[in-house]
Design goal:
21 helices; single chain; seven-stranded mixed beta sheet; six-stranded antiparallel beta sheet; Beta-lactamase; 32% helix; alpha+beta
Amino acid sequence: MCTAFNRWGKGLLLVFLALAACSSPEQQTGAPTQDPTTGEVYTRRRVVVNDSLIRGRVLDRNDSVLVDTRLQYLLKLPRRSPLDTLALGELLGWDSTTVRQRIADALPYENTPAGYPVQLSLTAAEVKRVRRDSADWPNLILTERTQRVYTTGAGAPVLGYMGAEAQAFYRQAKRYRRGRFYRLRNGGVETYYNGLLNGRHGYLHPLVDAKGKEHGTWAKDTTFQQGQDLHLTIDVKLQAYAEKLIGNRKGYLVALDPRTGEILCFVSAPVYPAATITAPDQAGVRAKLLESEDMPLINRPAMLANPPGSVFKLVNAAVALQLGAISPSTAFRCDQSLVSCVHDHPQASSLTKGLKYSCNPYFYQVMQNLINRMPDSLAVDTVAVRHANLDLWRRYTRSFGLDSVLGVDVPREAPGFLPTAAYYDKARRTTRWTYRSVYSLSIGQGEINLTGLQMANMAAIIANRGWYYTPHLVRSVGDGGPLARFTEKHRTLIDSVHFAALVPGMVAVMQRGGTADASSLADVGITVAGKTGTVQNDEGDDHAAFVGFAPANNPKIAVAVYIENAGFGATAAAPCAVMVMEKYLRGSIAPKRKRWEKRIQRRAQNGY
């Protein structure tokens, strides 16, 4: 072994730490109690039945264990002696580059002062190597402790972390200029279901005489309750696959089962390994996450609300059908004097054609009919009519679960935003605003903001022809089912017949001449219903969006994808969505899309 290590002294210090024993000693509590009959004085005791609560596991929908409490091994490096990384690598079975990288990952910031304590997480095999050569490594300290262990790197925003194990991260977050990450921290299901995972202590409350004999109780005993397992709705293989498609780009991908509201995958990108926040040797990695301009620590599908773009044309069309502003056969001219249309297409002679071509002037006129719609043929377009109709539009639109918190089982969720007539009165500084000043609503731009969860739920509502279960991440707690509120069916204010009228247009989007015809899955017998969106961005490249479901007539999966600064929804977002659909429904990607798949994954890895 290297002489540099031999100079550290002799003997290897091994320190083994474990959880407390299954019961704690008796504790005296409160003042002594005197028996009124005998006059004997008794001591109040409280006995903890089980002091090391066994925290429940977190499993995916196929019962793969994702998070568990297990023994973890830590190797503490010497603080002052020179470190021979080559020799340390030989001991652990690492190359010197790996040693240097692991140490760098463990340091909380660049130019960390010499002597900063460093601990490296080891596997059982690496620990065996250290113990075998213990005589040659005098100043290394090996410790054991129980901690939450992640068996997968996927699903960081879903799994989250225990607050007690994230204290080092909290301290780091408070120190950085992006300290808002601390306020927006996302503990995932580990935080949301903490009480159920933890279980409950059990206590006995005996009265004890001087000889230690018990004489009844002074308080009601409580029963120990072990922490319950969480069975997630997530398919961890699908989650990992979806993360490869989005990767280091900014955005999200949410897929759910529209029949149940169960979330199948939940990607917030840029992605990072699930264990990063609590791992004792990842302080340097956490520092980079905190400093990144791409803000990877924000839970994008739940906490960021953005303009949805053209995918919102589906909602406007449904409301217009319900209120009689249009019919499925309504035709509008592609009049680009109203608003530009980026697609070169034939005239939209029906709602199906309008959706297929995503014609902006068509939906400009759909919304115009809604806002300027007259109660009777004798009425004129007035301020009162516009205000009443906008608020009526908002009432029907809100029934999709928009402009409010859905109630998903995540620690924090944004409500999004839909403007009111009063909002425009204030923003425009006049009550006499006209449709022309709010027309951006017709194409999902302007003041409308939706979260990724709301976008996916919107697709599920159309798939179900008008109803939904609140999206959720946990399908069962222990041997029971999900939380009661996730079994309650919600209905929109739109009749199912009007949702059915949207589906032919969404199917046409994926067919020849549609905006996403290149993403068709017809070759494998899957009919996809979808809608693309390209969201205008004044500060850079446009954002790409897509919502859809499959199979179109018997939907089993609904997907929403949003990739920032990626350009057209048809070329950036739609391919990711349909590949997740195909992976879920068939288990594999058809050979004709393999090259496409690799190109997307490569771009995702490079972050563009």
